[in-house]
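Duplicate of earlier report; Type I restriction enzyme S subunit input re-posted below.
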Amino acid sequence: MSFPAYLAYQDSGISWIGPVPAGWSVKRLRFLAQVQTGIAKGKDVQGIETIRVPYLRVANVQDGFIDIDDVSEIEIAASDLGRYLLRPGDVLMNEGGDFDKLGRGQVWNSAIDPCIHQNHVFAVRPHGIEPEWLALVTSADCGRFFFMTRAKQSTNLASISSTNLLELPVPCPPPAERRAIMRFLDRETGKIDALVAEQERLIALLKEKRQAVISQAVTKGLDASAPMKESGVAWLGQVPAHWEIVPSTWLFAEGRERAHADDQQLSATQKYGVIPQAEFELLEGRQVTHALMHLDQRKHVEVDNFVISMRSFEGGIERVRNRGCVRSSYITLIASKKAKPSYFSYVFKSKPYIQGLQTTANFIRDGQDLNYGNFRQVPLPLPPGDEQENIAALLIFETNRADALIVEAHRAIALLRERRAALISAAVTGKIDVRGLAAVPQKNAAAA
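Output:
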């Protein structure tokens, strides 16, 4: 759908905003709002009256919404509540963090009352413009460009001061026109958000099906007509009658070899397995911390070993894809000849196995790391070698197919979000004229 331009434009005076429609102005945020900074953790409150209140962090201010599912509490001086209290209509903006989190304004609707905010979240309180308009501007290209160019930058993080934030240029159409643009954007972005939600539901279903296929194959085999027997293991249930159930120590020994001088540093990841740190950084587009000291204390691993990391109770045990070394705190497993790594890589990532692993200790509650002692408590299925390989081959095919569909869905979401951002950017800077579409009924607007 294409949109008309305005009939006349004027110079905005801001290079990254460009020309704006005649009759618009561009004002600095300091003329439209005041900025309330947040509370810093660790303030001494001994000897004074205190209260505990919810407070919002950077993690709560998400792209497009405020996440209140995980809100922490903080003890503050009772007299400080008014100073840091959030009010309806405040626009929350992140002071720092990853580049994609910087700025990112969202309107606070008092979903929690009272609620305050930490010092890494600004509460911008508009008095000369609608909060919703300000939130739109911060999410538009002109807002993103401002935050990126004004921020102090380190390797992976950025931050902006309240003084700099007050210099944000805000395109300001006349009030009636501004409200018309907001009505149009609310309707059109709502349509796009609904399409994104459909793709997200598809991804969730594909992941659920993917996991179900893995769990079924590694615990029941591929022959639905095969006689079954009780395994005597809670996480396995019934298994094919010709399978063995064996202690995990029969199949996997704990590796203790120290790192070699020429070992590359590896990262243990739930997403990619155990791969070189350089490859992980390339895939993720971000840097990770590299060990510079005590490299000789790290553990050597070979291809098709497995690694138990601190988070293995959440996502399974990871297969090693490259020769190198991992952290000394990790547990390494060396497979025997009877254990085919291709099969057990799926066993260790299956939901039933992970649940079995979780029953071995109270590490989730008490912060205890998963170790070899936990691993050895979980018996393992042992199909014949050729059957292990057949199961792995089928799962490679099925998971690759599911992963390809998931990638397509993610690509569709990226395109939808790109269109959403472009639409907002064009509308709030006046590159398109949507005034005539603001009140058009939905069916007619779609056909326009």
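The first strand starts at residue 9 and ends at 10.

Merging into the original ticket.
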